[in-house]
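Problem 12. The chain below contains 284 residues. Write out its predicted structure in token notation.
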Amino acid sequence: MKKVAIQGGAGAFHEIAARSYFGNQVIEILSIGTFDEIVQLVSDKKIDYGIMAIENTVAGSLIPNYALIREAPVKIMGEQYLRVKQNLMALPGQTIADITEVHSHYMAIAQTRKFFNQYPHIQLVESPDTALSARKIQDKKLVGKGAIASDLAAKMYGLEILAAGIETNKKNYTRFLILAHQDAESNPGSACSKASLCFSLPHHKGSLSQVLSVLAFYDHNLTKIQSMPIVGQEFRYFFYVDLTFDSYERYQQSITAITPLVVDLQILGEYKYGIESLENIHHQ
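Solution.
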């Protein structure tokens, strides 16, 4: 049985992403407090996979996670897209009128604040995690308290959903990465259609444009480009690039072509483009 670490408590969106990615495979879910801890466990080979959120359509990129991947002996093995649907839940037998406090992660509160404007009697309280907020209500039998969390959390902790889909932006999607140790068996080239790269550039005019032109020549589609300052080097940046391709051979040729143009090139992962999970959430 594969051990898979998620950030947050059981029933968190990371668990939904993990179970969606691995499908019918039997896995053991381990709830971990931070992304740093997950990467350390993968690096130490104490778990098989780690699940890490990397970007959200509302909140943007989780910038610190890029550095965690780049600096550790891990690689990206896959990705999963998930629609984040927020729900208000409480112990059974209550109504919204009975709820005086709602606890959840600050991001979940930010995503649902417009809904709660209708209920000025409810105080919103930040907590470390969505699922753990739901668990606390059940464990301590907190009457009059609610949580914002996933459908799975409500089911796992025996809570009643008082209002479903309360997020302001219904196109609230998160992309999750599946991480494994650098020594883990790589995906076969024939199964790969996406890659994540990291590199810096020499100080001369048009250096980034040159790289992008080469990637375009090889018919790659850039799905993301993110820059981050290099600590201790003024006005120098790491560029994180996600690209998709139809031919693994052409992709390998493009890597050979850009290598002389960049500095410190790292291939963070080669994997299957999660287009199916992306298409599925558009029908939800």
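Discussion. The first helix runs from residue 13 to 22. Students who got a different answer should revisit the alignment rule from Section 12.3.
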